[in-house]
Write a structure and sequence with these properties.
By secondary structure, the protein is of the alpha+beta class. Helices cover 17% and strands 34% of the residues. It is built from 1 helix and 10 strands. Bound molecules: dinuclear copper ion.
Length: 155
């Protein structure tokens, strides 16, 4: 089969792009520890107020010194607010929603997860720089979505 030279050039360029894209995904997965959600935990958003953990969302310190923040997002705020955590220690955020899908983004960091009703999103980060951070809802959730912000204080 005779394939025109320009046709071949474009085919190889397209193939090269695919290799670059897939390679980028593979490298960032391995090196940057970027990964899809790895844990599935469900709860009933209807009875969240009597849930042992999310009925009273707060910051807790585990016996080993690690910090857990349980967060409930609801139109149009986060609980607890403000969230106060220590600097330089791993902090595990556990986030869920009471009503619709919200976002939980600590602005200027890579701490970012969806708050999905019925599910618990979990990630662990260490904040080395003390200060005040803004938590923004980055998922459209209703009329006052743009007002849905919280504060994270790192001490
Ligand atoms: Cu909550 Cu947008």
């Amino acid at each position: 089969m005779n394939v025109d030279l320009y046709e071949r050039v474009w085919m190889w360029l397209a193939a090269g792009l695919i290799v670059i894209f897939v390679g980028t995904i593979a490298i960032t997965t391995g090196v940057e520890a970027i990964q899809p959600p790895s844990h599935l935990e469900t709860l009933d958003p209807e009875t969240i107020d009597s849930h042992p953990e999310f009925g009273d969302p707060k910051v807790t310190i585990r016996p080993d010194g690690s910090v857990v923040v349980s967060v409930v997002a609801a139109m149009f705020s986060f609980a607890p607010d403000p969230i106060e955590i220590p600097a330089g220690r791993p902090v595990t955020f556990r986030i869920t929603s009471k009503d619709v899908i919200h976002g939980f983004e600590v602005v200027g960091t890579n701490a970012n997860a969806l708050a999905v009703p019925g599910y618990v999103s979990e990630f662990t980060v260490t904040f080395d720089t003390p200060g005040k951070y803004t938590i923004a809802c980055n998922e459209y959730c209703g009329i006052a979505h743009h007002m849905m912000v919280g504060t994270l204080t790192v001490k």
